[in-house]
From TrEMBL:
<keyword id="KW-0456">Lyase</keyword>
<keyword id="KW-0324">Glycolysis</keyword>
<comment type="similarity">
    <text>Belongs to the class I fructose-bisphosphate aldolase family.</text>
</comment>
<dbReference type="Pfam" id="PF00274">
    <property type="entry name" value="Glycolytic"/>
</dbReference>
<comment type="pathway">
    <text>Carbohydrate degradation; glycolysis; D-glyceraldehyde 3-phosphate and glycerone phosphate from D-glucose: step 4/4.</text>
</comment>
<dbReference type="InterPro" id="IPR013785">
    <property type="entry name" value="Aldolase_TIM"/>
</dbReference>
<dbReference type="GO" id="GO:0004332">
    <property type="term" value="F:fructose-bisphosphate aldolase activity"/>
</dbReference>
<protein>
    <recommendedName>
        <fullName>fructose-bisphosphate aldolase</fullName>
        <ecNumber>4.1.2.13</ecNumber>
    </recommendedName>
</protein>
<dbReference type="InterPro" id="IPR000741">
    <property type="entry name" value="FBA_I"/>
</dbReference>
């Protein structure tokens, strides 16, 4: 039986499990591999991702994996499709479908995410390849005169068109409007911009006739910019993020899965844990981390076959920490527990 959009959207954030964002584009994965001295070849990318998908984390802590176009078509060393490894672990395969953020004409310093043309056909192919959910990322930067409403509106409209096309294809859309944490702005500026963006996104989802019960929101946390003089405490990030989401995200949305956005591994975990401990949330909150789940396994693996077990242990440990956080059961001491 095919699971409904509602069932898949709910399952992605249920029971403390969360998502692995392994959908780095060719240029992004090259950056990550450069940092560990590994050449970004077809085989190395395959070996790295196969290592993750065969780890214990997949059966216990990871509800779904966001893949890149190359990976959803790739086979493991023994010929098994990587998608089958994910399914065999009881996890759901998903696919990044946007084609990246491009400079937006008339809006200096801002971008518009591309990839709508031909998307209905691509969804059909991805469904046949096993994808049951998808991701589209809009990027909003904070600067002196940005963001502009022109850019927020264009990105929200694109997210809504993408989400409607996904649902028409039987695929759950992850709607990701990312407000970057690159600047020197304080947490309250991030709050204001995130609120503005989320209000517009849900307005456009309504106009686009997107079924909120069959989608997942992937937001940034409300957090001070990386270069800000004053960084906010864990409690402040948690409280302001929850307040912002409660003001913007209808309770019909079943699942909210955060991006990590450049936070350290442990910060991303601590922030999620603090939000859950606060209680009283109308949606299931979890993680959909890229960097905060993969930095440790990338380092432990470093491209060496003899490090595969260590890489898998590092990935399982980070996944378990975030699973505990999504249940509100993580403590700094949990970090000392060895991966099972
Ligand atoms: P990060 O957790 O590294 O921000 O990546 C998540 C993601 O999918 C961004 O689009």
């Amino acid at each position: 039986m095919t699971a409904s959009l509602e069932e898949v959207a709910y399952k992605l954030a249920a029971g403390g499990k969360g998502l692995l964002a392994a959908d780095e584009s060719a240029s992004t994965i090259k950056k990550r591999f450069d940092a560990i001295g590994v050449e970004s070849t077809f085989e190395n990318r395959r070996d790295y991702r196969e290592m993750l998908f065969r780890s214990e984390a997949m059966t216990q802590y990871i509800s779904g994996v966001i893949l890149f176009d190359e990976t959803i078509r790739q086979k493991a060393q023994d010929g098994t499709p990587l998608v089958s490894l994910i399914e065999a672990a009881g996890s759901i395969p998903g696919i990044k479908v946007d084609l990246g953020a491009q400079p937006q004409p008339g809006c200096p310093g801002e971008t518009i995410t591309e990839g709508l043309d031909g998307l209905a056909g691509r969804f059909k192919e991805y469904y046949d390849l096993g994808a049951r959910f998808a991701k589209w990322r809009a990027v909003i930067d904070i600067g002196q005169h940005i963001p502009s409403y022109t850019s927020i509106l264009a990105n929200a409209q694109a997210l809504a068109r993408y989400a409607a096309l996904a649902q028409a294809a039987g695929i759950v859309p992850i709607v990701e409007p990312e407000v970057l944490m690159d600047g020197d702005h304080d947490i309250d500026r991030c709050y204001d911009v995130t609120e503005w963006v989320l209000k517009e996104v849900f307005q456009q989802l309504f106009y686009g006739r997107v079924k909120l019960e069959g989608m997942v929101l992937k937001p940034n946390m409300v957090i001070a910019g990386r270069k800000a003089q004053k960084q906010a405490s864990v409690e402040e990030v948690a409280a302001k993020t929850v307040r912002c989401l409660k003001n913007c995200v209808p309770s019909a949305v079943p699942s909210v899965a955060f991006l990590s956005g450049g936070q350290s591994d442990e910060e991303a975990t601590a922030h999620l844990d603090a939000m859950i401990r606060g209680g009283g949330l109308p949606w299931n909150l979890t993680f959909s981390y890229g960097r905060a789940l993969q930095a440790a396994p990338q380092k432990a693996w470093s491209g060496k076959p003899e490090n595969i077990v260590a890489g898998q242990a590092a990935f399982t440990h980070r996944s378990r920490m975030n699973y505990l956080a999504a249940l509100g059961q993580w403590t700094p001491e949990s970090e000392q527990q060895k991966a099972a």
